[in-house]
Design a protein that fits this description.
This protein is an alpha/beta fold and 344 residues long. It contains ten helices and 19 strands. The protein has two domains: 172 residues, Quinone Oxidoreductase, Chain A, domain 1; 137 residues, Rossmann fold (3-Layer(aba) Sandwich). The protein is 28% helix and 28% strand. The strands form five sheets. Strands 3, 6, 7, 10, 11, 18 and 19 form a seven-stranded mixed beta sheet that branches. Strands 14-13-12-15-16-17 form a six-stranded parallel beta sheet, with helices on both faces. Strand 15, helix 7 and strand 16 form a beta-alpha-beta unit. The longest helix is centred in the middle third of the chain and has 20 residues.
């Protein structure tokens, strides 16, 4: 089968590799239809690693995908060939202390699609995943939404962890796919007001159109001053979705005492810091958000019922042969890109 291989920093090539086969009774062979380019894929593309997860070349990345069932193992009874599925990229063991505590996302033995040292990714024609990671949807569930379910589910999980209080003021720092996913899910909680910051004007406009009450560009204005002028008491919850030191600093400043800082963005650096005097005096709660922890079925329901419509996030489409062009565009934030899709 054809696959896109990462062969070095900023280097890709299309190659023929063996087609995977069903080896376990609960395996499902999936034909990939569409793949989304995620910010974590770009980390691997530009640096070859995320923290301690270091690529050994060549390697196939990618974890946001829509697929069709090609074949199933002997014990798979809930899926049949031809069905469209949303792929949950995380394979948990369901047997360790974390899984037994309902923390499948921090499973001690977790394997994640497109993660070095774990599982090869989905930028290829076929993959094999266990039955529990393949969630069937009807034909009216678009391929675009099937791809977008993964980032949307991260937003859903972040909002769940935030437990947004009634009539809350919230801020989302960074309006890429994860920030917009947080916005869409947070709006379902009916906050008093939602504020979004973003350095790319086209993304900021998209966030406003998606329901943000105010948007600001920190490269053009003092967003801390602007937000606090509008809400002098500060924010109840801030979703930090950029993974930058400056956005973490801004979050600490705009949060009210007792507020919550949700850390979702993945920093490029190994360390970040906090102005501990201000964070301590405000008694802020800081919560790291790790992927999506069993929120995928609920997210599918929200999309199916029309509570969430996220197809506006798709700004660019590329053929499989042009995957590197897609990665270059996303890496360089060109042309106001939000979500680039690779179509098979």
């Amino acid at each position: 089968m054809k696959a896109v291989l990462l062969t070095g920093i900023g280097k890709m090539e299309i190659a023929d590799i063996p087609t995977p086969t069903i080896e376990n009774d609960n395996d499902v062979l999936l034909k990939i239809e569409m793949v989304g380019v995620c910010g974590s894929d770009i980390h691997y593309y530009e640096t070859g690693k995320i923290g301690s997860q270091i690529i050994e070349y060549p390697f196939v990345v990618g974890h946001e995908c829509a697929a069709t069932v090609e074949a199933v193992g002997s014990s798979v009874k809930t899926l049949k060939p031809g069905e469209r599925v949303v792929v949950d990229p995380a394979i948990s063991c369901y047997d360790c202390d974390q899984c037994n505590q309902g923390r499948d996302n921090t499973c001690r033995n977790l394997k994640f699609l497109g993660c070095p040292g774990q599982i090869s990714g989905c930028l290829c024609e076929y993959i094999v995943m266990p039955q529990q990671c393949c969630l069937a949807v009807n034909k009216d569930f678009s391929l675009e939404h099937a791809v977008l379910t993964e980032p949307l589910t991260i937003g859903l999980y972040a909002v769940k962890l935030a437990n947004i209080p009634k009539n809350a003021d919230i801020a989302i720092l960074g309006a890429g796919p994860i920030g917009l996913s947080c916005l869409l899910n947070a709006k379902l909680e009916k906050p008093n007001a939602s504020y979004v910051t973003e350095i790319i004007d086209q993304r900021l406009e998209i966030a406003i159109n998606a329901g943000a009450d105010w948007g600001g560009n920190p490269n053009k204005q003092d967003i801390v001053k602007e937000i606090l002028n509008r809400r002098p008491l500060g924010m109840d919850v801030v979703f930090e979705c950029a993974g930058k030191q400056e956005t973490i600093d801004q979050a600490i400043k705009i949060l009210k005492p007792g507020g919550k800082l949700m850390l979702i963005g993945i920093p490029r650096t190994e360390r970040v810091s906090f102005v501990i005097d201000e964070a301590r005096r405000k008694e802020l709660t800081i919560i790291n958000v790790r992927r999506q922890n069993n929120c995928t079925p609920n997210c599918i329901v929200l999309i199916t019922c029309g509570e969430i419509n996220a197809e506006f996030m798709v700004t660019h489409r590329f053929n499989f042969e042009d995957t590197q062009k897609a990665f270059d565009m996303v890496a360089q934030y060109r042309d106001g890109v939000v979500k680039a899709l690779i179509e098979f």
